[in-house]
Amino acid sequence: MKPTDRALGIFEAFETAGRPMTLSELADAAGLPVSTSHGIVRVLMERGYLYLTSRRKDLYPTRRLYDMAEKIIARDPYLERFEPFLERLRDATQETVIVGKRQHDQIVYLRVLEGPQTIRYSSAAGALKPLHSTSIGKAMLSRVAPEELRRQLVQAPLPAVTDHTVTSHEALFAEIALARERGYFVTRGESVSDVYAVAVPVNVNRDVLGIAVAGPRHRMEGEIERVAARLLDVRREIEQGNP
C-alpha cells in the first residue's frame, strides 16, 4: 500500500466509523499496522489535521480538511458554473442529479445532488463507475468516433454488473449509435438493478462532461422522455452560457 493510500485510508476510516477512535482502533479500521498508523497520525497531528479529544487519547479530524476542500471546490473549473443548473434540474425532476467525467475506463462522479424523495438513488462525489453500465458512461462513449469506438469495445471487458447489464459488444455499439441520434442515453437497471438513469454529454471548457438524472424504476420508467427533455434543455443552457 502506497503512503498516499495509507493517509487517505485514515480519513476514510473516520468517515466510516463516524466517531473518535484510539490509535489501535483507527489502525484496525484502516487495515494498517499500529506502528504504521502511529507515524501517519503523528504527521497529521503536526500538520493540524487530527487532534486528541479526551484523556483516553481518542483521535478525530479537525476542520482543516473540510475548510481546505471548501476552498478547492469553490474554484472547481467545471462545477462552479453548473450548480444553479443542477439544482433546478433536481427540483424539476425530484430525482438525483449527477455530473460525471470519463477517467480512463471509468466514470468518476464529480457532483451528486440527491433528490428529495425518501426512496432515491444515492451516491457520492468521487465514486467510480463502469463506462458500459452507466448512462454517463454511454454518453462519454458516444463522443468516440464510431470505428474507434467499435475497436475499443471489442478490446474492453464488459462484465455484468447486474442481470440487466449489456455485455455484448455489438449490442452496446448499436445502442450507443441509436442513442447518439436522439441525443440522450439510458440505463435500465444496468448499474443498480432497480435504478433507471438518463444522461446527456455536455461541452464545457473544451472538454466533455456527462449530466444524469437517476431514480428508482417505479418513478423513472414512465418518465424517461420527460426527464430527457429537461436534460437536453439544461445542456443547451449550459453550452450557450445562460444563467
Automatic annotation (TrEMBL):
A Gene Ontology BP annotation from the UniProt entry: negative regulation of DNA-templated transcription
SMART domains found in the cross-reference section: HTH_ICLR
Ranges of residues in domain IclR-ED: 64-243
Record's keyword terms, sorted: DNA-binding, Transcription, Transcription regulation
GO terms assigned for molecular function: DNA binding; DNA-binding transcription factor activity
InterPro entries: GAF-like_dom_sf, HTH_MetabolicPath_Reg, Tscrpt_reg_IclR_C, Tscrpt_reg_IclR_N, WH-like_DNA-bd_sf, WH_DNA-bd_sf
Protein name: Transcriptional regulator, IclR family
Species this chain originates from: Paraburkholderia lycopersici
